Structure formats: C-alpha cells, structure tokens
Amino acid sequence: MQIEVLKSKIHRVTVTEADLNYVGSITIDEDLMDAVNLIENEKVQVLDMNNGERFETYVIKGRRNSGVICLNGPAARKVQVGDIVVIISYALMDFEEAKHFKPSIIFPENNKI
C-alpha cells in the first residue's frame, strides 16, 4: 500500500512579491529549496497564515540567498506582499517506509536559513 506523507515544509516565510502577469507558480529562493529537498517544477501546497487561503502550484527556482517568495499568475491574487505562508510538499511511499521517513522541515528567519 502507498500513502501520501509530508516530505518538505518551509514554515512561516514572508511573501516578498506577487506577479499577476506571470504564467503561474511560486518562486522560492534556491537556498530554501535545497534546505527542504524541493526541486524545480515540484507540486507544492501554499497555506497563507494571514487569510486562510490554501492552494496548489509548482516551484520555480529563485535567486540564491535572495529570500524571494513570489506568487505568480493567478496565485498572486490569493496573497498580499508581507503575508506569512507555509509551503508544503508531499510524497507517495510504501506504508512501512513511511513509518520511518523523516520530512525536511525548516523555520527560516527573514526568509533565510
């Protein structure tokens, strides 16, 4: 049996940009991506602590050490610059493997590790 479990979590980062005129996605500082094992184009769930919005999109690499968290395209309407968000990805794995799996979770300060 396969189950879906938490794989990666960036807990409480600040939205630095919102670009409605972009095709769509979330741009994340590559340092933050590396810290939680996210890859470009990976599906993520974004939870906005300020307004309760929850939505899915995919990751685009942002400039390293920039602290960028930019919601692009339609997702830009779901956040405001300055909002605090949690970014989560999940993975499918065997039930027995999942019992011992440890997700990568970070708690950045000022969008930096």
Can you summarize this structure?
This protein has 113 residues and is mainly β. It is built from 2 helices and 8 strands, in the order E-E-E-H-E-E-E-E-H-E. It has helices at 30-35, 95-100; strands at residues 2-14, 17-19, 25-29, 43-48, 54-62, 69-72, 84-94, 104-106.
Textual characterization of the structure:
With 113 residues, the chain is mainly beta. It is globular, with a radius of gyration of 14 Å. It contains two helices and eight strands, in the order E-E-E-H-E-E-E-E-H-E. The model has no long low-confidence stretch (mean pLDDT 97). It has a single domain (2-97), classed as Barwin-like endoglucanases. Strand 4 (43-48) and strand 5 (54-62) form a beta hairpin.
| CATH fold field value | Barwin-like endoglucanases
Number of strands: 8
Q: What value does the average pLDDT take?
A: 97
CATH top level?
Mainly Beta
Radius of gyration, whole Å? 14 Å
Count of domains:
1
Task: Characterize the biggest β-sheet.
Answer: 8 strands, mixed
Q: How helix-rich are the residues, as a percent range?
A: 10-25%
SSE string:
EEEHEEEEHE
What is the percentage of strand-forming residues?
over 45%
CATH architecture: Beta Barrel
Q: How many angstroms separate the termini?
A: 35 Å
Q: Spans with pLDDT under 50 lasting ≥5 residues?
A: none
